[in-house]
Amino acid sequence: MTMALWVIGLCLVVMATPIINAELITPDGCGITKGCFHYPEKCASPSSCSYFLSWTVEADGSNIFEMTGNVGTYVAVGFSRSGAMRDSDVYACTKNLEVVRSRNLLEGNDNEPRPLKGVSDVDVSVIDGRIECRFKRQMLLTDDKDLTYYDLSEGNSYTIIMAKSGINLEDDGNIKFHYSGRVQGPRMSFTRVDQTEVLPPAARSFKSPMGCGGPSDPCEFEVTWKKNPDGSLRFDMSGNAESYVALGFSKSGAMADSDVYACTSNNVVVRSRNTMRNDNDKNQPLKGVSDESVSTVNGGIECSFTRQVSLDDGDNTFFNLGPGNSYTIIMSKSNTFLWGDGNIMYHFGGKVQGPVISFSDVAPPPMMPDGGAGGCGSTRGCFFEPRESCTGPDNCDFFVSWVTNAANDHVFTISGKAKTYVALGFSKSGKMMDSDVYACTNNNEVVRSRNTVRNQNNKDQPLKGVSDWSVSAVNGRIECTFTRQASLNDGDPTYYDLSGTNRYTIIMARSNGLLWPDGNIMIHTSRVIGAEVSFNEFNLAEAKPQDNTKLFLQKAHGCLMIIAWVGFASIGITIARYMKHVHPGTKICDKKPVWFAVHRFVMVMAFLCTVAAFVIIFISVGGFVDPIQGRPIDTRYIHAILGTIVTFLAIINPIMAIFRPHPGTPRRPIFNWAHWGVGTSAHVLGMVTICFALINIGKTKPLIQGIPSFLFWVMIVYIVAHITTWIMLELKTRFFKNTGASDDIPLKGGDNGEPQAAFKEDNKFKDMTFRLYIFVAVVLAVVMVIIVARAKNNNM
Question: Is residue 435 within 8 Å of residue 461, measured between CB atoms?
Answer without folding.
Answer: no
